[in-house]
Amino acid sequence: MRSLIRKKRNAVSLQPTVPMVTVSYGVLLIASVVSIVPFLYILSTSIKDTRSLFSYPPDWIPDQIFWGNYAKLFNETSFLNWTLNTFAIGLTITILKLIIDAMAAYSLAKLEFAGKRLITSTLLMAVAIPVAALIIPLFFIIRDMGLLNTYWALILPALANPLGIFLLRSFIVSLPDDLIHSARLDGSSELRIFTHMILPLISSGLVVHAIFTFMLQYTNFLWPLVAIQTESKQVLTVGISSLKSNFVIDWGLISAASLLATIPITLLFLALQRFFLAQSLSSALKG
Amino acid sequence: MSPAVFVGTDNWEKTFADPLVLKTIWNTIRYCLIAIPVVFVVAMLIALTLNSIRFGQTAFKTIIYYPTLQPILIAALMFTFVLHQDFGVLNIIMRAITGEPVNFLGNEVLAMPTIAMVEVWKGMGFWALLFLAGIQNLPRDLYHAAELDGAGPFRRFFQLTLPLLKPTFFFSVIFATIVNLQVFDSIFILTDGGPFHSTASTTWYIYRSLFTFNEPGYGATLSFVLVVVVLILTALQSYAFQDRS
Fold it and tell me: I need a surface site. Which of A158, B19, B34, B129 has the fewest CB within 10 A?
């Protein structure tokens, strides 16, 4: 009897105890509140008149929804332009990068050519160079090309980032060589093998790459701040930050803009939630 | 722009004779030394608690991971609504407790730790999920054996979980250092390097050297130092990973 009880206890032994579970829920509840309250607070701020923002004790949930901040955002600032710019530039970069990186990844993974090792190690070095350190040289290169203050200044440097090549290469390397050989024997051209065989097989890799590229562009701040001077040509992040440099800061306007800027990422997150939670981690771990 | 002239080590000497440059390097290190340990401890705590619950795990994961996705810039702007002396959430709480609001960003001592909190808020979900994945990949047999030997949860954590997660931590520390050495967005929004340059980071200096100080040579020198530091960290990382496999 004793041994049976022991056995049973062993079988469930790693179940956390009741106080531990209670403490865990407490900690997680606090962490969730901390995570979510700033979002709720800017939502609350964005739907009230900025003057009432300074009343104390604060009016957490306004009695009447005030749409003035949103109206002002669309009518008196270039918010709509910034949003469209961000999407146009982000999608252009994403599409071009998918094409370039997939081709580069295929050739580095499965083709033999002179200088392949040298190219691979050079690209690997380039991955390691921090963006912050590129700002000054990039500024002078883009300026000498006469591209400052154009969308090309944002698109071209992003295309040169080689990280995606290695991501896609890791997907292609694991495909069996025999598959490609037999297609070649059947007389398929290299381009046909690439478009009809490789691309469909690495579609999940392409999706990961597309999401990360777009997110990276969406959250990008320092380089657009340096490269673009005209206010209406700006991307969303820099545009919103410029609202804070006005002489009298309109907090209602800033909260409305910030809240709207979180929406596209939120939608993407909700649509691909499982994918985000699982995939981003495994790819981050692979480095 | 005048034609380029080779100035030898002139730029290097001038750059490192500039007290502001030295201050930005120290500030950046200080920022990393605050942000990374704090975010790791908080994330570890969240990972352990996530690991010990069954119901609602996905919901908590989703909520806590959510801030990670937002642009740092938006996170920093949200923090102005947390920290503002008149209407910041934290200061409304402070006023209720102590009667006095705290000027978190206008204070030379508090400003940098406060900016590090943006990284903690935004990063805790990312690191928590990464650590959770690490914990869940650990061999369960060891834990059963440890429990049979009478090791309690704290002992199991300090003598099993932490040592076993060493490779994960090593990767994480280097990755976090590379990212945080480049801190800029939150500083630009919250303090713009102030007060008295107490939050001026290396990247902030690089940016200012281009536009405000009009001394891109200094910024370029500093950029080069940043590249070398990051390359060394990356080499360390890949060396350790090769070692393992």
Answer: B19
